[in-house]
Write a structure and sequence with these properties.
This protein has seven helices and 13 strands. With 284 residues, the protein is an alpha/beta fold.
Length: 284
């Protein structure tokens, strides 16, 4: 089976930075067996985020992107983040069940849309879930881990940029669900535990300098990928960047906003250059 992950290798002057986009995938495998409209599932995508950060390889940083939809299986969740009520049988591994898991937003989502409609008409088998983990979730994590480890071995440090977009209104599951999200960007470092203050502040100042409103750990604090691959004390920094979709995406018609998409890509190109220059200077 082809690994369902795109990797664009680094070009140009090498830098100790790795970019990844786990939620921009738009492939829906044939065995998904969903019963809601595809358009509803597609609203869960981070549309074209990998294109916004396309300058990364030319600045010496690899860009990794999932090809599969997060609605099929979410690489930004723990493999143990599974609702035991969703499958037919007994799961033979430990589980980490949270409020979000029970609300249908775990490793394998069970509900979609603001009305939280069930995605399936049946329970999934243990075999189905294990296959999704082994054939989609695990290859993504293996690819990202390898890139980060190789980078750290070469430079003695890594800066991992976990790239996302967020709806213009706070999504279900957040305290402000349904209200407008006034942040243009949100940076997440899990309350300072996954990336150094200096680096986080550099990114915040750069985006603020373009005239944007930038939140830090405001609702969007970072989830599994920044948690799993960060260790600031050993120079492994992971920072999540959330871009408000209204800056580049027509959420109603699900198309790029004329002019705005290119403008946002230019801004991300400038940000990529700042991040890579900073990382080179720190790694020596």
């Amino acid at each position: 089976m082809k690994v369902p992950v795109t990797v664009i290798p680094a070009r140009g002057k090498p830098t100790p930075v790795v970019f990844d986009s786990p939620h921009s995938g738009s492939h829906y495998p044939e065995d998904f067996d969903y019963v809601v409209p595809l358009s509803m599932l597609r609203r869960g995508e981070d549309p074209h985020v990998e294109e916004l950060f396309a300058a990364a390889p030319d600045n010496g940083a690899p860009l990794i992107a999932a090809e599969f939809s997060r609605m099929y299986i979410d690489p930004n969740r723990s493999a143990a983040d599974i609702d035991p009520d969703m499958f037919d049988g007994d799961w033979p591994h430990p589980l980490e069940v949270s409020h979000k898991t029970k609300s249908g937003m775990g490793l394998i989502r069970t509900r979609s849309g603001r009305n939280r409609k069930p995605i399936y008409e049946r329970k999934l088998s243990v075999t189905e879930i294990r296959n999704r983990i082994e054939n989609y979730w695990q290859p993504y994590h293996d690819t990202l881990r390898e890139a980060l480890d190789q980078t750290h071995e070469r430079f003695g440090a890594t800066w991992h940029i976990n790239c996302h977009s967020m709806p213009s209104k706070w999504a279900t599951g957040f305290e402000k669900a349904g209200e407008p999200n006034d942040n243009d960007y949100v940076l997440g470092n899990r309350d300072g535990t996954t990336a150094g203050v200096e680096f986080t502040e550099l990114v915040r100042e750069t985006l603020s300098g373009f005239g944007f409103n930038v939140g830090v750990n405001d609702g969007q604090k970072g989830v599994e990928l920044v948690r799993a691959y960060s260790d600031p004390e050993n120079e492994r920094h992971s920072l999540q960047i959330e871009i408000n979709r209204r800056l580049y995406w027509d959420e109603r018609n699900m198309v790029k906003r004329d002019g705005h998409f290119e403008e946002q890509r230019k801004i991300m190109t400038a940000l990529v250059e700042v991040i890579c220059d900073y990382a080179r200077s720190k790694a020596g």
